[in-house]
Each structure stands twice: as C-alpha cells, then as structure tokens.
Amino acid sequence: MTRFLGLILGATFAFTPLLAQAPSPLSYVCHHVGAPPTIDGKLDDAVWRHAAWTSAFVDITGGADRRPIYRTRMKMLWDDHALYIAAELQEPDVHGTLTAHDSVIFHDDDFELFLKPVPSDKDYFEFEMNALNTTWDLYLNRPYREGGKADNGWEAAGIRTAVAVQGTLNQRSDKDKGWTLEIALPLDAFASRQQVPMPVDGTQWRVNFSRVEWLPGHPREENWVWSPQGEVNMHIPDRWGTLTFRR
Question: How far apart are CA 110 and CA 52, in angstroms?
Fold first, then answer.
C-alpha cells in the first residue's frame, strides 16, 4: 500500500494520526528447503508443509474494533536461490482491472510485500500484485516521512509469480472462495539498488505483508496486514516484523 503526495496517477499518501499503539512487531522463521515449490499459485506442493502459516492478518492500526471480515494469511520458504512466498486470501468476489506492469496496483484489491534486507540501512523494497497477476515493484531510498522517493525503475529481476482463483474471476453474479498466490523472489533481485548479502542461518530481514481490500459501498480501502503498524501507513519499517532464515 503506497501512499504519498505526488504519486503517479494522483494517489494520496495518508499520514493519519496514531489510531492505536503499535504492538510489538511479529516474527517468522523461514525454513530452508532442498527443492523449491512449483510457482503455479495452487499451494499444493508437498514442500509447503515445511512452512507454518502466519496468524490471520489484522487491521493495519492494530485496533480490535476493526477486525478484517475476510481471512488473509501467508507462509515462506527459502533455498540458495530465492525466497518463496505463498498467500491465501478469502474473497467472495475475486476481481481485478489493472493489467499493465507497474500500474498503481492498490487501486485494485491486492497483496503486497515490503522487504528491508539490510535492517541497518534506510532503503527498502515494495512489491504488489492483484488477482490478474499484474505486478508493481519499486524501491525506496528511505521512508516517505523522511523525504524518501519511490523508484519505479527498479525491476525485481527474475521474479516469478502466479495466481490461482478459487471461483470465477470478474464474475459478479456468483460467489467465490478466494484466491491464492505464489512468489519466487530471487535473492539477488536487489542488486541493482542495494548490495544485499546472501542469507545464512540466522540472517534477519525486516518484512511486512499487506492486503488492500475495496469493499462494495465503502469510499475508502481496508488495509489488512501481518504485523500491525499502529496507523494507516505501511512505510514505517521499524514497525515491520522480522523474518529469520533457518537451515
């Protein structure tokens, strides 16, 4: 969920007041595997049994009075080449409109990941995708509130993504179960913008995951996340969770 003044296509970055005290960031242990999953969006490869699901996503503010109405959860694995992400999004009406790469994907319902591979640095990476498997990848040299700028020129070289819809895409007359997705993000995909050491056992990254949901009849989007931010702003890396690589 990218929000900042002057974003292409006129999107608005919402610097909202603190709505809830930010809880302690969550953590996830990501296990190393010898054989990667097939990236087809289906999540049925046996290798995914080695990965634990996260808890269900919560409202971005962490407020208990704004509990998401549809479940979202994800899991991760890694090998010597890539980080693998799987996500499951419950959704009674799976739809998408954006088909051009690097569109402002959060104008659709979407899934987003935020990655800070070098926690001591200010820069980080963002990746978004919708149910049409349309993607947007960008690099930020620092958070927006610190004067950071989005660089849409960064391309996650070699990334592979896939979506599987449990229902019918863009068919409003029936009821769907949701959509699942898989991402294979090469560990060297950041090289054009940042020198990121290859993970070893115990390496930690700061990460977070977000889902933007546009509910019918609601003028504003819902923002559901893995590790709550305490306010409607994903661009506070110090409040992201921790990913620990384990062999």
Answer: 22
Domains in the chain with CATH codes: 8-246 (2.60.40.1190)
Written as one letter, the residue type at 14 is A
Read off the pTM. 0.91
C-beta pairs of 97-104 under 8 Å, 24+ apart in sequence: 97/132, 98/130, 98/132, 98/134, 99/132, 99/134, 100/134, 101/134, 101/135, 101/136, 102/135, 102/136, 102/137, 102/138, 102/152, 103/134, 103/136, 104/2, 104/7, 104/8, 104/9, 104/11, 104/136
CA distance linking residue 190 with residue 156, whole number of Å: 7
Q: How far apart are CA 112 and CA 136, in angstroms?
A: 9
152-156, Cβ contacts within 8 angstroms, sequence gap of 24 or more? 152/8, 152/102, 154/125, 154/192, 154/193, 155/192, 156/125, 156/127, 156/185, 156/186, 156/189
To which residue do tokens 């409109």 refer? 97
Stretches where the chain sits below pLDDT 50 are 2-19
Instruction: Find the DSSP H helices in the chain.
Output: none
Instruction: With H, G, I as helix, E, B as strand and everything else as coil, classify residue 235.
Output: coil
Which residues is 223 bridged to in the sheet? Answer: 212
Under DSSP, is residue 65 helix (H, G, I), strand (E, B) or coil? Answer: helix
Structure tokens at 160: 């592979």
Q: Identify the pLDDT of residue 20.
A: 54
**Closest C-alpha to 93, from 175, 165, 164:** 175
